[in-house]
């Protein structure tokens, strides 16, 4: 298995696969309440069979080139994940997403991990538009979209029914030319 360093703090990004279902379930159990504030995944991944099924679904998406899931690990422990919920290479679009358990929040892990997968999607897969769909009440996730240089395209009023309540969803996006220009500007500023 391979992993990509996310910085000097020992954080790494690597694919999540069905054989890691026990590790994934343990991660979900540690973060169930925190993750479940805005993400329905804890309601889906409740036992080993559902954990394996979720990871298998993403393995099938990866095989079909329609989605991906990557784990964020610190010191070898799975603490979160980033995903492409949807990828349409023919249309050049993808939707990214994320979650973390509480102990990993506030360390920039998601921003670094999503930056890595967007770089891959744009440069390796030819994705032109990456979207970020987020509950309007999820301030930390909106902050990630801003740090990534995304633009808020709009709000879908009461479009998402979650745990008996209708939520507004914001749609943020970045286009490949904007992404590349920002990355080149950051590299020029850092003296690379």
Walk me through the structure.
GO terms for molecular function: protein N-terminal-serine acetyltransferase activity; protein-N-terminal-alanine acetyltransferase activity. Pfam families: Acetyltransf_3. This is N-acetyltransferase. Residues 11-168 form the N-acetyltransferase domain. It comes from Kitasatospora indigofera. By secondary structure, this protein is α+β, with helices and mostly antiparallel strands. The protein has a single domain (4-189), classed as 3-Layer(aba) Sandwich (Aminopeptidase). 39% of the residues lie in helices and 33% in strands. The chain has six helices and eight strands. It has helices at residues 21-35, 41-44, 48-64, 109-123, 139-147, 176-189, and strands at 4-5, 11-15, 68-74, 77-88, 93-100, 129-135, 151-162, 165-175. The protein has an eight-stranded mixed beta sheet, with helices on both faces. A hairpin with a 4-residue loop joins strand 4 (77-88) and strand 5. Helix 1 packs across helix 3 (48-64). The longest helix is centred in the first third of the chain and has 17 residues, at 48-64. The two termini are 29 Å apart. The model has no long low-confidence stretch (mean pLDDT 92).
């Amino acid at each position: 298995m391979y992993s990509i360093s996310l910085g000097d703090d020992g954080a790494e990004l690597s694919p999540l696969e069905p054989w890691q279902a026990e590790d994934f379930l343990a991660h979900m159990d540690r973060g169930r309440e925190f993750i479940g504030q805005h993400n329905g995944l804890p309601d889906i991944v409740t036992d080993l069979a559902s954990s394996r099924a979720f990871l298998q679904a993403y393995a099938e998406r990866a095989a079909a080139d329609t989605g991906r899931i990557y784990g964020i690990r610190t010191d070898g422990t799975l603490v979160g994940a980033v995903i492409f919920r949807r990828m349409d290479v023919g249309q050049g679009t993808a939707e990214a997403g994320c979650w973390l358990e509480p102990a990993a929040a506030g360390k920039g892990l998601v921003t670094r991990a999503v930056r890595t997968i967007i770089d891959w999607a744009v440069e390796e897969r030819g994705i032109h538009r990456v979207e970020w769909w987020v509950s309007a009440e999820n301030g930390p996730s909106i902050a990630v979209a801003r740090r990534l240089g995304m633009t808020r395209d709009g709000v879908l009023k009461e479009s998402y029914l979650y745990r008996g309540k209708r939520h507004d969803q914001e749609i943020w996006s970045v286009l490949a030319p904007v992404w590349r220009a920002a990355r080149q500007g950051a590299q020029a500023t850092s003296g690379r």
